[in-house]
Design goal:
Chain A: One of its GO terms (molecular function) is manganese ion binding. The complex is a heterodimer. By secondary structure, chain A is mainly α. Chain A has nine helices and five strands. A three-stranded antiparallel sheet of chain B has the order 2-1-3, sandwiched between helices. In chain B, α3 packs across α4, α5 packs across α6 and α6 packs antiparallel against α8. Classes of the chains: A mainly alpha, B mainly alpha.
Chain lengths: 239, 245
């Protein structure tokens, strides 16, 4: 019984981490007494101020310590309630929890990717993609600049809160630009989509610095995009 | 100054009863108080951006979208209902509804507002929610749990939904009662038919981020405690009852 629980936990953890490298050294794995995985805030691989002037340190700190932390807290809470509901075979409670799981779990997934999509300029942030992703972008969008234009246009046009993505469609083996509402992760658009790059266009991602001018935020964020990460994921997923 | 909201509600009623074809001119209406009038609860800087930039942009974009189209000459309310298009929204919807929502929102607040309503409004709140405190809990919870951008509303539900224009209409409750509802992004209760909005709070992050950052619940609490113009809400209720009678 104990061995089975351990195996289940390990499998779950490896599934959850499939999207990327381990989420930083600070992502300590804690567990409930009942064996439920408890998510913790992943460390950033750079200082809050390291993306300035593209993104201010104040934004990064609030975004990471407050917003991302809140998604994690509420995700853990929802998962605990889900476990209770499942244990009690309370189907209506299970279904009722789906919205909170999608929103808060999505918030955790999306932000975990987002932090890895960013890098300070001195660590390669903003350097256009090399390797096979660079070729694929030229093939699918015409040029790197054309991709940026498309992402900026879709990100600016998104109503309310959400994300704009560069994804890999594993089935059709092609790159796509998609948007998702609120904290919906890219996989909610189609199960075969792998996120390579996600840009947060919630107002909290830029408001203290760019106020109502979302297009300026989108224009500047390319200066700190970590294309090495996107390329690594692309090569791993398309091989 | 609560009359702006009333005219809007009256306009909707006219729209359905008589279908006015007045040439609509969309203008950026100023809030009925100076931009520093809600300090220190809602800062002048927030109003300068929220009204001076966001609201203005909705007005300007709507004008551009409407000119020379079949929507030209329609009232704001008509555009909202038409462009909602049963949930498969047309481009003008977001700007039109956000213009209406913001006009309505500014009227929901006043310097030195908050406290408790009185008269018939309080009676109906107590009848339909159990107590004023229970209403506050429900309204605050709706505003806090709207995923992403949107609005929370207190509305007078006058008649049974016809469901004609509604995508995912709120569950059918009894008629002629007060209800708390929330709506995503630009959506407002006009699109569902039979609802008379009485009070709203904007929970787009731009409404509170400069003053409260991520602390949306604090913003909601202080809005209810210090900003709500219950006079405006009472007048709208009176109007809603008259129009729906």
């Amino acid at each position: 019984m104990a061995a089975r629980a351990l195996l289940t936990r390990k499998t779950l953890a490896s599934v959850l981490r499939k999207d990327a490298r381990p989420l930083g050294v600070g992502a300590a794995v804690a567990t409930h007494s009942r064996g439920l995985h408890v998510y913790t805030l992943p460390d950033l691989e750079y200082d809050y101020g390291a993306l300035e002037p593209a993104i201010s340190g104040e934004i990064m700190q609030l975004h990471h310590q407050k917003h991302h932390q809140t998604y994690i807290t509420n995700y853990n809470k929802a998962l605990e309630q889900l476990q209770d509901a499942v244990a009690k075979a309370d189907s209506s409670a299970v279904v009722k929890l789906q919205a909170a799981i999608k929103f808060n779990g999505g918030g955790h997934i999306n932000h975990s990717i987002f932090w890895k999509n960013l890098a300070p300029v001195r660590e390669g942030g903003g350097e256009p993609p090399k390797g096979s992703l660079g070729w694929a972008i030229d093939t699918h969008f015409g040029s790197f600049e054309a991709l940026i234009q498309k992402v900026n246009a879709e990100g600016a046009a998104l109503q309310g809160s959400g994300w704009v993505w560069l994804g890999l469609d594993k089935e059709l083996k092609r790159l796509v630009v998609e948007t998702t509402a609120n904290q919906d992760p890219l996989v909610t658009k189609a199960p075969n989509l792998i996120p390579l790059l996600g840009i947060d266009v919630w107002e909290h991602a830029y408001y203290l610095q760019y106020k109502n001018v979302r297009p300026d935020y989108l224009k500047n964020i390319w200066k700190v995009i970590n294309w090495k990460y996107a390329n690594d994921v692309y090569e791993k997923e398309s091989s | 100054m609560a009359s702006l909201g009333l005219q809007n509600v009256a306009g909707i009623n006219l729209l359905f009863k008589e279908g006015p074809k007045v040439n609509a001119k969309f203008e950026l209406k100023p809030p009925p108080y100076p931009l520093n009038g809600l300090e220190p609860v809602m800062s002048q800087q927030t109003l300068e951006f929220h009204w001076g930039k966001h609201h203005r942009t909705y007005v300007e974009n709507l004008k551009k979208q409407v000119v020379g189209t079949e929507l030209d000459g329609k009232s704001l309310e008509e555009i909202i209902v038409t462009a909602y298009n049963k949930g498969d929204i047309l481009p003008a919807f977001n700007n039109a509804a956000q213009v209406w929502n913001h006009d309505f929102f500014w009227e929901c607040m006043k310097p030195g507002g908050g406290g408790k309503p009185s008269g018939e409004l309080l009676e109906l709140i107590e009848r339909d929610f159990g107590s004023f405190e229970k209403f506050l809990d429900e309204f605050k919870a709706a505003a806090a749990t709207q995923f992403g951008s949107g609005w929370a509303w207190l509305a007078y539900k006058a008649s049974k939904l016809d469901g004609e224009n509604a995508a995912n209409p709120p569950s059918a409750d009894e008629d002629n009662k007060l209800v708390v509802i929330k709506s995503p992004n630009a959506v407002n209760p006009l699109v569902w038919g039979g609802y008379y909005p009485l009070l709203t709070i904007d929970v787009w992050e731009h409404a509170y981020y400069l003053d409260f950052q991520n602390r949306r619940p604090d913003y909601i609490s202080v809005f209810m405690d210090k900003l709500v113009s219950w006079d405006a809400v009472s007048s709208r209720l009176e109007q809603a009852k008259a129009l729906s009678a």
